Every structure is written in C-alpha cells, then in structure tokens.
Amino acid sequence: MKNSKLQFIKYDVEQLYFENNSNFVNKSKNIDVNPKIGHKFDKINDNQFSVSLQVLINCGNKCPFTSHVEIKGTFIMENWESKENIGVAKENTLAILFPLLRSCLSSLIVQGGYPSFLLPIVDVKETE
Known about the structure:
Layout: E1 7-20, E2 36-45, E3 48-57, E4 65-76, H1 86-111
Antiparallel strand pairs: 1-4, 2-3, 3-4
C-alpha cells in the first residue's frame, strides 16, 4: 500500500456557538436551517498549512436556534501549493475535516435540547 503525500497532523475546535431563539414559533414539522459552509487555507510554510472549515446556521426567526462551529486542521504535504498538488491538498483536507465539523455541530445542537441534526453531505470544495 502506498502512503499518502498528505499528512493530517491535528485539528482544533476554534469556535462553538449556540443560542436558542426565544422568538421562534414552530408552524410546521420541517425547518429549513439553510447552513452556510465556508473554508480558508493558510500557509504555514512550503510544506505545512492549516485549513479552517466552518458552518453557520442563522436564519432569523425561521429557526429555533443560531449556531456557528469552526474547526482548524493542520496538514503537511511537500510543495502543497504546486500546480500538481494544490487540487489534491484542497479536496482531501476538506474531506478529512467535514465529518469532524458535522459531528461537532450535531453534538452542539443535541446538547442544546433539540433532536439530532445531521448536516447534509455537501461538496465542500465548492463552498467559499
């Protein structure tokens, strides 16, 4: 088996935010929370970089809560910014971090007293 050129070093939870919306009135069984997902890459050096991935749920009085979760992963990959490596680096790091973000958000919402919520699977590389 061939080793990956990409190494996942660690991740940190940078922000967990949850606030109940006391003005929310549930008029239907379905609630469209419309999560906003974003990511950012930061160079540490030629072979090391970090990736921040975040989700925001804030739909005013149409949601029972507001939530924001941000995690940051640190990775190593030789010449990660090169033309041949950048696509692999972006796609794989986001694929590694997304399940972690999804789990943090789900736990936060359940701890807030709501039924389990799973962030839908999305193509994270297509987010901003």
